[in-house]
Design brief:
Length: 335
């Protein structure tokens, strides 16, 4: 099988490239990535010389390149996106260009090359925000995105489904909850807080810290996508979750405890505008149909993640001192 993986130099994409090459040593992987601020070839150092792996630098919105690459693959696994809510609040244009126009370009190329199998990696954020006692999101939950990021992902999901109904493109979609683990860019909650604490800095907790997210260890997301591309029913959507609903405050206290720090390291800062209150996922469909469920529990995943950041200081120090420093300053001045 020859996979075209888009966004394979980002957080989840690079974990997925490692996962596939390890589990299926005879598969061929082409990783197409634009290497934006979030893409990092350091994530792929260990496999860069694997004869079954090839990296191509390019833009998913480049129709000519997408046609060439898709002509020569069996399955497209589409991760490439602008992925950070806070950045989409500062400036949303790139989110529309990559997440909406880029996905459309890929869909057209898949259609023009014999209707190639297409898996679209999406997020639970398309469903909007839950109240404390609302039932968890499932595949039938109506879309209600509330940030420029989630609105752009919702648009891409709609396009992917439209290509199934209109052109018979063999698609699947996964809507997954928040991931954490190795290679997570240190603008997101887990890696930002862990690396700040290693550097003896404070951790910026938004609002009252009572917003709830469901968390999944990244390798479990990879195994869910693996199950879907091999066994998923064409045209279907699968919700993927970690069975680990936590408030941001709970997570912060857990990280502080595991890293030998106390609450004096917390800085409560101005809340994110339109901050979704709660996400939760009912993953019974993928569990019942494909036999998938998370294998790493939250405590174990968090410990592994903290260890990884402790052992890979050069990786994140490089990032924190680059372009990211400008972004962080902008964010900080916004508070
Ligand atoms: P990320 O920001 O770490 O990585 C995105 C990758 O896409 C980067 O390597 C970047 O260079 C690449 N990219 C961006 N624009 C591109 C373009 N125009 N052409 C080609 N490549 C481009 O994101 P992530 O956290 O790894 O998320 C991957 C996917 O999973 C996204 O589609 C996201 O919506 C989805 N998702 C993420 C989470 C999460 O918790 N991180 C949860 C559910 C779903
Ligand atoms: P994030 O990692 O940005 O993921 P998402 O917004 O896509 O769920 O944020 C996770 C939660 O952590 C979210 O409720 C916002 C909160 N948060 C903070 O409190 N402080 C921070 O510095 C960041 C980045 C996030």
């Amino acid at each position: 099988m020859k996979l075209l993986i888009t966004g394979g130099a980002g957080f989840i994409g690079s974990n997925f490239v490692h996962y596939i090459l390890k589990k299926y040593p005879d598969y061929q992987v082409v990783n197409l990535d634009l290497l934006t601020y979030a893409g990092n070839l350091e994530n792929l150092k260990e496999i860069e010389n694997n004869p079954n792996y090839k990296f191509v630098k390019g833009d998913i919105a480049d129709a000519k390149l997408m046609n060439e690459l898709i002509a020569d693959c069996d399955v497209i696994v589409h991760f490439a996106a602008e992925s950070h809510v806070d950045r989409s609040i500062l400036a949303s244009e790139e989110f529309i260009r990559t997440n909406v126009i880029g996905t459309h370009t890929l869909l057209e190329a898949a259609r023009n090359n014999g209707n190639k199998r297409f898996h679209h990696v999406s997020t639970d954020e398309v469903f909007g925000s839950l109240g404390a006692t609302d039932p968890a999101f499932n595949e039938a939950t109506p879309y209600d995105p509330r940030s420029p990021y989630s609105a752009s992902k919702a648009s891409s999901d709609h396009l992917v489904r439209a290509y199934f109904h209109t052109y018979g493109l063999p698609i699947t979609i996964s809507n997954c909850s928040n991931n954490y683990g190795p290679y997570h860019f240190p603008e997101k909650l887990f890696p930002l807080f862990i690396t700040n604490l290693i550097e003896d800095k404070k951790v910026p907790l938004y609002g009252d810290g009572m917003n709830v997210r469901d968390w999944l260890y990244v390798e479990d997301h990879c195994s869910a996508i693996d199950a879907i591309i091999h066994k998923g029913r064409i045209g279907e959507t699968y919700c993927v979750g970690g069975n680990a609903e936590k408030t941001n405050k709970e997570i912060t206290y857990k990280i502080l405890e595991l890293m030998g720090k106390d609450e004096s390291s917390i800085e409560f800062v101005k809340d994110r505008p339109g901050h979704d209150k709660r996400y939760a996922i009912d993953f019974s469909k993928i569990k019942n149909e494909l036999g998938w469920e998370p294998s790493v529990n939250f405590e174990e995943g968090l410990q592994k993640t903290i260890e990884w950041y402790k052992n890979n200081e050069a990786w994140w120090k490089d990032i924190k001192s680059g372009e990211y420093a400008n972004y962080y300053e902008k964010q900080y001045n916004n508070r």
